[in-house]
Amino acid sequence: MPNQQPAPTNSAAQQALEQLQKYYFYLNDNFASLIGKCTTDDERNQLKIDFVVARDAYLKAQNDVLVEHDGILATLSSQLSGLQKQINDAVASAQNIVKVLQLVAIASGVAAKVVTAGIA
Amino acid sequence: MPRETRFHPATARYLPRRPQARLRWLAASIAALLLLTLGSCKQLDDFAAIGQAGTDASSHLADYYSQLEDTTSRTAQLSYFLDGLRQLPSSGDSQALYQQRIVELEKRRIFAVRMGAMYTSFSTLVTNKDQPQIESSVKDISSSLASMKAIKPDDHVNQAITGLLTEVDSLLRARKAEEIAPRMQAFNAGVVKFLDSEEFLYKQFNDEYADVLGNVGKALIGSGYVDPTPLLTTQISALGLTPTPGASLTDAARQGYENLVQLKGQQIGLAMKNGFQAIEGCFSSLSQAYTNLNDATSLSAAKSYADQAGTYLGLAADLTQNGASNAKPATGAH
Fold it and tell me: What is the mean pLDDT of residues B216-231?
């Protein structure tokens, strides 16, 4: 079967996410000092809005990557279903061997009785 | 050439095959088949090891996603709380985004659970649990053949035939496993690449939790919303130091508490990272094990990684649920 391998995540996307995280963490870690440096309410409000926007952009970018990978996950899930069926069939087939041997044992037992009776 | 004849060089004619020669030929053929059977037994053991390591790694991966969902949920709650402390505008969008992440992680957890079921089925295939029934049937067949005087109970042919019948199940299972293995290997390689492509995201999720946790601790103390002394007492005791009851909180103690909160987040992040790397290591080793079943190193590495994954994820869960005081130090997986 074809080997459908997922492509590794675009390193540009990874770098972009790292930058978004860096900016969000910077605002988060320095929030108190940054707000302390604001001199007006407008500045403070703008900082709060910037913080929320930065966080949402970061979270959305992460989710976009996850959603993009759903296609790969669907391909892997499809392969998994095929494998599961093949294995289930093989297990059933292996279990049949036991039944066949039991039937052979019964048949050979009957045959032995017939032969023994004939000889006697 | 008919099987019942043999070529006689001196007379250049085909003569009837001697019964002893026929028996030797039969015995040699059966002996060769038995050798193949012994090979298949070794192969079955290796396949069983693959099945077990795959089952364990899948189970740990499902646990990992479950913990990542839990981490995301905690991050969302802490963020919501922190937003309140900072008097930020409504964080409805970020909460919805966190929920979407949880939904995506749940899809991956379900996939890991299904993968575990597949590996368990594979283990069932390569584990012969019906051997007592088979041996009983073969014994009956052998005694029937003996009573019909078809073969003597103790001759080599009887032993070879019954031996082969006894192992026919193992042969069939090994054969089926061999047929399935390349497909599993291709699938496994896909899983490794998929995990690799998302590893940096998972690391970000854990870093985010550590960062928010640290900032909540900092904001609580900095804003004077809580008296940190009881927390300090617990944490300092856990570090083996003797706290001074009633002593005022110094700046150094405040800083120490902040550090401890941050350390806890970092420890959880490190344990999760090491756990994930161990899971990846297990699946990578399995990829090598499919290629060469005789390579015991890959199989033992897969088992070792699966065990490590369990240890690290247990550590992360312990740190998250019970705090740093009960946790063992986390070290690198490699």
Answer: 68
Tell which wins on pLDDT, B132 or B302: B302
Check: CB of residue B107 under 8 Å from CB of residue A76. Answer: no
Evaluate if residue B254 carries a pLDDT over 70.
Answer: no
Q: What's the pTM?
A: 0.77
Please name the residues in contact with B147: beta carbons below 8 A apart, sequence gap of 6 or more. Answer: A112, A115, A116
Distance CA B113, CA B60 (A): 9
Q: Do B122 and A65 touch (CB under 8 A)?
A: no
Q: Are A97 and B172 inside 8 Å of each other by CB? A: yes
Cβ–Cβ gap B144/A63 under 8 Å: no
pLDDT at B235 over 90: no
Chain B, nearest residue to A84 by Cα: B118
Residue A5: DSSP 8-state: P
Q: Which of residues 41-100 of B touch A (CB under 8 A)?
A: 79, 86-89, 91, 93-94, 97-98, 100
On whether the CB atoms of residues A61 and A20 are closer than 8 A, the answer is: yes
This model of the complex carries an ipTM of: 0.82
Section B37-55 average pLDDT: 79
- Contact between A79 and B190 using a beta-carbon 8 Å cutoff: yes
Q: Is A1 exposed, middle or buried, given 0-12, 13-18 or 19+ CB atoms closer than 10 A?
A: exposed
B133: closest chain A residue by CA = A98
Model confidence at B324, pLDDT cuts 50, 70, 90, reads very low
Q: Hey, is B16 helix, strand or coil?
A: strand
Nearest to B329 by CA among B317, B312, B308: B312
